[in-house]
Amino acid sequence: MICTNYSNGKRHDFRLFKESRIKIHESIKALTDNGYQGLQKIHNKTFMPKKKSKKRPLTQEERRQNRELSSQRVVNEHVIGKIKRFKIVTDRYRNRRKRFGLRFNLIVGVYNFEL
Question: Which of 9, 15, 67, 108 is most buried, taking the most CB atoms under 10 A from its CB?
Answer without folding.
Answer: 108
